[in-house]
Amino acid sequence: MTNRIVSASIGLPILLAAVWLGSPWFSAFVFIVAIIAALELTRLAALWGDKFHFAIPVILSALFIAGVQGWVVDDEIPLTPYYHFAAIAVFALVARRLSISRNEARPYPAFGIALATSLYVGGLLSYALLLRDLEQGMEWTLLLLIAVFATDTTAFFIGRAIGKTPLAPSVSPNKTREGAIAGLVGAVFASVFAVNLLDIDAIIWEALVLGLIIGAMAQFGDLVESSMKRKAGVKDSGILMPGHGGILDRIDSIVFTLPAVYYFVIWEVQQKGLLS
Questions:
Q1: What does the radius of gyration of the chain's CA atoms come to, in whole angstroms?
Q2: Exposed/middle/buried for 14, CB within 10 Å: 0-12, 13-18, 19+?
Q3: Handedness of CA 120, 258, 208, 18 (dihedral sign)
Q4: Which residues contact 190 (CB under 8 A, 6 or more apart)?
Q5: How far is CA 259 from the centre of its chain?
Q6: Measuring CA to CA, how many Å separate 115 from each of 38, 94, 95, 223, 265?
Q7: How do residues 85-122 score in pLDDT, each as one tens digit?
Q8: Taking the CB of the first residue and of the last residue of the chain, which one, N or C, has fewer CB atoms within 10 A?
Q9: First to last CA, the chain
Q10: 210-228 pLDDT, tens per residue?
C-alpha cells in the first residue's frame, strides 16, 4: 500500500500538470507513455509466444502520435483520426488470435501482432492529444480521468464488499457483475459531477450517457489487458510503478475510453446531436 501511495503521489501531479499545460508538454507526456507501453506489450507478446523486434511497435506507435499531432505533415490541422476505425478493427481481429494455443499454427505473422500492439498503444493513446486540443479540451480530459477513476474505485470496493457473481472468470476471476454495475453507476455520477464542477458546456443527458460510455469502455479495457497478462502468465505488465505494476496497468481503463469520449464530444456535444 505504501508503494502505491508513493507512486500515485509522484505520477498523479505529473499527469495533471501535463493536462493543464497542454501542448507541447502533454504531447511529450503521451508520447513517452506510448513508447513505454509498447515496450511492455512487446514483452507480454513474447511471453505468449509471438516474438518480434521491439523497434517495430515503438516506431509505429511513435508515428501514430506524431501523425496526429501534426509532427509528420506540414499542416496546422492534425491528421484525421477516422483511419483509427480501421486500425481498431485490425487490432480486434489480431487480438482474437490470442485465444489460440501457442502450439497451434497461427495464420498471422508476428508482424501482425506487432501492428496490433502499435494500434493498441499508439493509435488509441493519440486520441488523448485530439481530445485535449478540442474546445474545453482540458476540461474534457479531466472529466475522462475523473470518471475512469470513479469506475475503477467503485467497481473494486463494491465488488469486494458484495460481489458474488463472476463477470469474466476465465479472464479476471476477481471481477464481479455487481462490481461492474457499481462501476457504471460511479462513472455516471462522476461524469455529472465533473460537468458541473468544471463548467463544461454539456447538458445533463449528455453527461449521463457519457458516464455510461466511460464506465463501459473503462471496464472493457481493463478486461482486455487482463486477458493479455493472463495469456502471458504474469500479474503485472511491468515494474515501472511500484505497487501499481507497469504503464499498461495504469492506462488499460483509458485507452478505449479516449476515442469513445472524443467522438461523443465532436458528434454529440459540439454538433448538438440527438440528446440536445
A1: 18
A2: exposed
A3: positive
A4: 146, 147, 149, 150, 151, 211
A5: 9
A6: 11, 9, 11, 20, 28
A7: 555 555 555 555 544 444 444 545 567 778 888 888 88
A8: N
A9: 44
A10: 999 999 999 999 999 888 8
Residue 100 is given by DSSP the state S
Contacts of 232 (CB under 8 A, 6+ apart): 43, 44, 45, 47, 48
The CA distance from 273 to 178, in Å, is: 32
* Per-residue cell: 17: 500538470
Residues in the chain: 276
3 state SS of 171: coil
Residue 164 CA to residue 182 CA, distance in Å, equals 13
Q: What is the residue type of 102?
A: R
Q: Is 107 helix (H, G, I), strand (E, B) or coil?
A: coil
